[in-house]
């Protein structure tokens, strides 16, 4: 898979010195090769990965604590890189984060491997937990931090819980990318989504009309 | 399962006369019994269901075209009933629809059977397609119709696509109920979600500030 080859492995748990990067890449590529050959995740043993990569088992264990951590690094190498936050405004940072989710959605649709890997990962509680802890949770914390900054700067309402605000932004994008694999993911969707959630759905002519319940 | 017993089977594909309702109920309960015994969906044959219900196979085929349609009716009998739309305003109708999703989420968490059934259904493309056609798609059409009415009445902006608006409302609720099974689903969430999406996330003091891109 060219994706894994084109970028360095970003594994937080990898302890290798710079010159061992080639070894790490060979190991990640061995996992990708086995997955592409149709070997199910549950049958991917460290023995088999070591044999395919032409290294000893200890070489793998020196870099990753186990199959779960290694596998999460394989997924991260295949995913789009983390978003560069422009920092010009909360709105622009949110658009960049949504754009990362949109690009990951498009990539998952075009990559049979990535598609299968997500599906298998979700059916393996241990690997899903490792992916959640290293990828999902840090991203979520970053999003919430950006929203908190927006509240402090006056870009966001202060009377709404940031966790709910985060779900209002992320929910629609995940609905289209993860839950509804045939949904439209056009260019400009991230901007439109963020701006519409910020502006609200009420007609602009009566922006201060409060809802019946409030 | 008491849920299936407490309400009539709502199968659109069931052709029975009133007096055959008991037979339909016996068949639905036979499926529930087999599922509760741990029989996987893939092994639930019409033969086995007929034997468990004490009816002939023809009795089942007279009411349902196949396993998929029958199974969707089993799921619908276990789910919360369709929302009663108050019709007082678009906002109130949207709250009722969100509340139905929230209640279904809570029920799925407390019902091992319903939880398993959704998981198995999603891994069976034919049954998922039948559920989608009979449950998901009609609900989606109803939601979009309510939003279109809101646009005509001036309750909603006319410059945003109703499909996107629908995803802005449904996405956050599905994120919490389906994708994140440990998320908070408190009382009042449906009202808060609808009102926040309608009002937008910008501070109330500057409601007419437009976004940098618009």
TrEMBL record, chains A, B:
Residues 45-64 bind DNA. Coiled coil: none annotated. Transmembrane segments: none annotated. InterPro entries: Homeodomain-like_sf, HTH-type_TetR-like_transc_reg, HTH_TetR, Tet_transcr_reg_TetR-rel_C_sf, TetR_C. Keywords: DNA-binding, Transcription, Transcription regulation. Residues 21-82 form the HTH tetR-type domain. PANTHER family: HTH-TYPE TRANSCRIPTIONAL REGULATOR RUTR (PTHR30055), TETR-FAMILY TRANSCRIPTIONAL REGULATOR (PTHR30055:SF148). This is TetR/AcrR family transcriptional regulator.
């Amino acid at each position: 898979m060219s994706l894994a080859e084109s970028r360095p492995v970003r594994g937080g748990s990898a302890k290798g010195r710079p010159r061992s990067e080639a070894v790490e890449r060979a190991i990640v590529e061995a996992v990708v090769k086995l997955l592409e050959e149709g070997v199910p995740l549950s049958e991917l043993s460290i023995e088999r990965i070591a044999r395919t990569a032409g290294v000893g088992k200890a070489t793998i264990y020196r870099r990753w604590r186990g199959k779960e951590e290694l596998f999460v690094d394989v997924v991260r190498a295949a995913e789009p890189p983390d978003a560069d936050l422009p920092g010009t405004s909360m709105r622009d940072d949110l658009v960049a984060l949504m754009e990362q989710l949109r690009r990951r959605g498009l990539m998952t649709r075009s990559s049979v491997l990535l598609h299968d890997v997500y599906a298998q990962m979700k059916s393996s509680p241990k690997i899903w937990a490792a992916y959640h802890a290293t990828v999902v949770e840090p991203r979520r914390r970053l999003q919430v931090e950006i929203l908190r900054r927006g509240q402090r700067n006056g870009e966001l309402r202060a009377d709404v819980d940031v966790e709910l605000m985060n779900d209002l932004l992320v929910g629609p994008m995940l609905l289209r990318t993860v839950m509804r694999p045939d949904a439209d993911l056009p260019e400009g969707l991230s901007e439109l989504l963020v701006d519409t959630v910020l502006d609200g759905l009420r007609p602009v002519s009566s922006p201060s009309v409060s809802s019946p319940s409030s």
